[in-house]
Amino acid sequence: MHFCVENLLDWYDNHQRLLPWRQEINIYHTWVSEVMSQQTVLAVVVPKFSEFIKQLPTVYDLAACDEETLRQLWSGLGYYARARNLQKGAKMIVEQLNGHFPQSYEAWLKIPGCGAYTAAAIASICYYEKVACVDGNVIRVVSRLLALSDVWSQSGQSAIQDYVNNIIPAERPGDFNQAMMELGATICRKSKPLCHQCPLQKHCLAFTNNCIAQCPPKKPRRTSVNIELFALIIWHKETNTFALVKRTKRFLKDTIGFPLVSTDEVIELESTLYSLSIQISKPTDNFSHTITHHRISGRVFIVQLTENSDSALILQKLGFSAPIYWVKRSDIAEQLATTLDKKVFQLFLMQN
Ligand code: SF4
């Protein structure tokens, strides 16, 4: 075993955090926890994980779960596409693999939403397969251990992958992967790393050379793109209900929320509403929102339907197909799963 791996595993044995999915090896639990933990902090993941497993204890329950329940169980974790893919994967396991989980890294890669990182985590933890996980935490730890100045290029990424592939021990690959991630999350932190508590300090070149702040170097930023969007609040005033749709286009695809339309579409939409004698408000003040490198400048139109409006026909003419969810005002706050929708509704509240 590589000398620094022994220190790392000793440290992990004594300092690992007690997490609900670490109590015993359970493939389903490992899979769900790994998907939930991507881009979400553990303090949020732990209670959501426990509730998720309580409500959907098996892969069969996940496969059969209705969308509304899944959305509620995922709310607060963000990136709902992950939940959708998780369920797609569960359906594939139930329908095509008779409920048997894939047995290797390669086989997990075929499951929807399961990339190299998740497949490596599951295969190493549950099947003792010697495949290394590389995420942001691991990149940071390795770049400091080796004092690497190039980590974001193709060759830099390969150097990191090769290094962990070389040192991952055959006896405890899952613990090694978890220990590296744990070390990155709790000790070798992005800022103010706790080097005096680090089990790898005497092997760390960045510590020895006093260049921790330069490792890893800053990631080159993607150029941001400015986008103009309009959100529609379709409001049935008499029943005080709001139309939510399942979005099928680029932004927030597959989430349920207020319809979003582009600048081109809004012109057509206004003329359709005019021909149907439906009232549309002036656009509200701007709201801003960022999704990855897209900087969205949005405005909100309120489309007010009356008792006599044929809601289904209007929505169809506006190009919104079923399912349409009519949500009561008293329930809307808890039904809005994305920050963008919450900002949109806030603008509505300021006017109504
Ligand atoms: S010594 Fe410090 S910089 Fe080096 S690996 Fe440990 S925590 Fe990270």
Automatic annotation (TrEMBL):
CDD domains: ENDO3c. It holds the Pfam family HhH-GPD. Residues 36-186 form the HhH-GPD domain. Keywords: DNA damage, DNA repair, Glycosidase, Hydrolase, Iron, Iron-sulfur, Metal-binding. InterPro entries: DNA_glycosylase, Endonuclease3_FeS-loop_motif, Endouclease-III_FeS-bd_BS, HhH-GPD_domain, HhH_base_excis_C, MIG/MutY. Belongs to the Nth/MutY family. This is A/G-specific adenine glycosylase. It comes from Gloeocapsopsis crepidinum LEGE 06123.
